[in-house]
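Private note to self, pasted from the team thread so I don't lose it. Backbone tokens:
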């Protein structure tokens, strides 16, 4: 019953090259050639397996401990954090100007998957810190950048986002925290909840980015500004000064991700926490949204990572667990592990195909990000905007199914906590809510992305997908032809739903939004799996190997078992609003 993790380097590199387009990327960091990319991935795989993965269950069982405003992390987390920082992993994605390495987003995505798969709770600290770095780099003045960014990029100080308040939830327009001018800074008061890594013992300082209102602020989202509010004030020479007027009032007792403290932060219990304005007054949400695409990509990547970890554990258990006589095997056959049972094989192949499809989608979008950011590719930028909510929503929802299947493979041992597989299911459940619920992602997809441009970006993507399916259908390989047929049907269903969505009223569109997101994710990932099968087929004559053969079989399984669900999602999206909106409030 091993819960060890080994990064799937072969599949990661395959997805980076064949789906993400690694070989065609041109970035500011030209030093990242093939040899360096592979060396980085190998070393990250070693660190994730040897240092982070063994702490995953430790963090889950011990959690974080709160004592009078101080938070202690689980055993081993502080030494791991020190080793992580000293090895330079913290700085890898950050700008070179502030001590980072500015690695391509596609490479960062593969490395981040390893951190998240090996220890999701640990990985969140870096993710949020680098998100705060991005917001400061783009919007803070030169003095704030000089004072804070080098230490944050180096990992000596960590960062947080303080958005949510008890009365507001996801409705940021209802934020009440206040920021009152006081000379060259502001005095901030208010309470924030769900602040990941809001307090801990791993870094010297914690830099909080806080949304608050100025005294004369307009109501609603237009009156929200962004402020930098450190745990310890920073002197001119960069040394730490006095403790700021902010405290961790408590930490949440959560379903999962126990190794990461989720804090209730109280600002200004005495004179007001000292903070500095980031960006222009009233532009707080705009400043935060500059980092939103990367944040949502990374949370979608959490779905990929947890699914991979759960699949590996289920596969290992199925290969070791002896129970019953499997169908089609001789009575005296000593090989009686449960992987011989047809339904266990179905579960495992379903987990494997969905996880590889999720990885393909995330890596495809990461590659498009690189093209948009460094090459100025407008079509790539449009694709990123369209697909980010799909990555976040579909990958995390898919991870729920994969981790649930992992519990099923374990049978009764699946819900025994000592096995470790239940942790993956609990952790995955949180990712569907983190950085915006699935409904928020779905409404973003149908409202801001598809309907706003008249469905044009999606139409162009569908045209590319249709052309690929038609080309695949003419291939002499029967397996590729079968995949092309299934993909063609899925594309037709997505196009049908797109046409309906553009004609529906706003309430009907919202009622079908989650089904539409599931449809889009299922079909677009199916297209990428078809591309993977085509690439694997092209390589096989020159390099006959088990990985490429399995890639073809996995893509076929996705086409025959997952893509047919597109019809059901399309039916729910197009026809489901009538029943969804039929009851009065009192009838529920």
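Design output:
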């Amino acid at each position: 019953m091993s819960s060890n993790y080994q990064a799937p380097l072969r599949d990661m590199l395959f997805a980076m090259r064949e789906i993400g387009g690694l070989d065609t990327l041109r970035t500011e960091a030209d030093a990242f050639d093939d040899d360096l990319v592979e060396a980085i991935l190998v070393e990250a795989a070693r660190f994730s397996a040897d240092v982070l993965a063994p702490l995953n269950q430790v963090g889950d069982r011990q959690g974080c401990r709160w004592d009078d405003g101080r938070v202690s992390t689980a055993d081993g987390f502080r030494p791991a954090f020190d080793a992580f920082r000293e090895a330079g992993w913290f700085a890898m994605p950050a700008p070179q100007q502030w001590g980072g390495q500015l690695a391509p987003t596609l490479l960062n995505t593969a490395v981040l998957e390893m951190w998240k798969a090996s220890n999701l709770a640990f990985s969140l600290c870096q993710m949020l810190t680098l998100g705060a770095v991005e917001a400061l780099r783009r919007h803070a003045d030169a003095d704030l950048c000089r004072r804070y960014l080098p230490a944050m990029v180096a990992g000596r100080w960590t960062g947080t986002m303080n958005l949510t308040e008890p009365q507001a939830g996801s409705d940021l327009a209802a934020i009440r925290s206040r920021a009152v001018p006081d000379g060259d800074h502001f005095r901030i008061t208010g309470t924030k909840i769900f602040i990941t890594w809001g307090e801990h013992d791993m870094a010297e300082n914690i830099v909080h980015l806080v949304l608050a209102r100025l005294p004369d602020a307009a109501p609603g989202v237009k009156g929200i500004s962004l402020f930098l509010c450190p745990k310890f004030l920073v002197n001119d020479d960069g040394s730490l000064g006095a403790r700021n007027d902010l405290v961790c009032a408590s930490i949440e007792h959560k379903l999962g991700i126990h190794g990461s403290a989720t804090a209730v932060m109280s600002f200004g219990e005495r004179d007001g926490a000292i903070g500095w304005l980031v960006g222009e007054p009233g532009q707080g949400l705009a400043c935060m949204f500059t980092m939103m695409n990367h944040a949502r990509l990374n949370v979608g990547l959490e779905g990929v990572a947890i699914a991979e970890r759960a699949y590996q554990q289920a596969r290992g258990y199925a290969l070791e667990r002896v129970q019953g006589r499997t169908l089609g095997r001789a009575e005296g056959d000593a090989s009686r592990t449960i992987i011989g049972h047809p339904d266990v094989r179905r579960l495992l192949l379903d987990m494997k195909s969905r996880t590889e499809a999720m990885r393909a989608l995330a890596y495809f979008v990461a590659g498009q990000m690189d093209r948009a950011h460094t090459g100025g590719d407008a079509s790539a930028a449009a694709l990123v905007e369209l697909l980010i909510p799909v990555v976040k929503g579909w990958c995390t929802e898919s991870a729920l199914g994969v981790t649930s299947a992992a519990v099923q493979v374990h049978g009764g041992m699946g819900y025994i906590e000592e096995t470790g597989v239940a942790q993956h299911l609990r952790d995955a459940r949180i990712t569907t809510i983190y950085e915006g619920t699935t409904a928020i992602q779905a409404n973003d997809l149908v409202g801001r992305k598809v309907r706003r441009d008249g469905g044009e970006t999606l139409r162009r993507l569908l045209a590319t997908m249709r052309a690929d399916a038609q080309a695949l259908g003419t291939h002499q390989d029967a397996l590729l032809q079968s995949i092309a047929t299934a993909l063609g049907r899925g594309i037709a269903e997505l196009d049908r739903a797109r046409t309906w969505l553009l004609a529906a009223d706003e309430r009907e569109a919202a009622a079908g939004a989650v089904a539409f997101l599931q449809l889009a994710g299922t079909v677009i990932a199916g297209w990428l799996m078809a591309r993977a099968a085509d690439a694997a087929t092209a390589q096989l004559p020159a390099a006959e190997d088990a990985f490429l053969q399995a890639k073809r079989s996995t893509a076929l399984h996705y086409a025959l078992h997952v893509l047919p669900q597109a019809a059901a999602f399309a039916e729910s999206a197009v026809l489901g609003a009538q029943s969804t909106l039929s009851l009065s409030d009192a009838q529920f």
